[in-house]
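The material for today's practical consists of a large collection of protein records. Read left to right, the backbone structure tokens trace the chain's path through space. An example says more than a description, so a record of this kind follows:
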Amino acid sequence: MKILITGKDSKIAQELLRRLKKNKVVAYNKAELDITNIEQIKEVVIKEKPSMIINCASLNDLKQAESNPEQAYAVNQYGVKNLVNISLDYDIKLIHFSTNYIFTGNQTEPYVETDRADPLNIYGKSKLKGENEILNSPDLTYLLFRTSWIYAANDDFLISELKLNSGQSQASYYPTSALATPTSVSLLIELVIRSIKKNLTGIYNVSCSGFASQYDFAKEVAKICEINIKIKAKTTTDLDNILTPRFAVLDNSKISKDLTINIPEWDEELKHQLEKYDN
């Protein structure tokens, strides 16, 4: 099986490449393969002849999406549409990543795969449109993963910021107003690879268990890494009045059942990743 990965420079793609290095894999970044250009996709597919495409190309920056919605829809919807059409034409399995931001966050229970999506911002709306390009293609063989708060222990702004500010007398403030599930990119890719090996298809929520605010996450990082820093709570975020879901927690019981695996709580996984990186 030959795998084509788009969006080579993303955290998800880099982890895939690290974990799939013994497999037949080719990866392209945006400069080499722009998914908004269907002819370019076609040329690469004819050249590489993959049996699977893993799409890691996405516009994930909330502020950028709000300021340039045309670009957000071009990548997150129409780019996905191009991949769907090429996958159908060449009988390729498509794997795609979506987001918990397709939900409003008005629930008090974690969202299951069949819950109604109603995004609040351009990023979420464009990602939902991309999902629909896949879900409205009945002849497509696909895996669609909804993810939540993906971090890499050695490449995360909040973790790096905490370590950098260690020992300073000034307190660091983090919001408590939004809840989601911190999920390591390592765990995400572990579940993706297991899903591929088991030949799963359809839509799955993929995240750690439990949920946290940025304040909770920061406190846990400081405790695990023994960072000497004052961490205080604030009720607002720094997203320039962009609406975001207050409770964007995904129910991961479907993938846990189908893979017969116990998925760890977010703080257990965070400890595992930080200790692995520090060692």
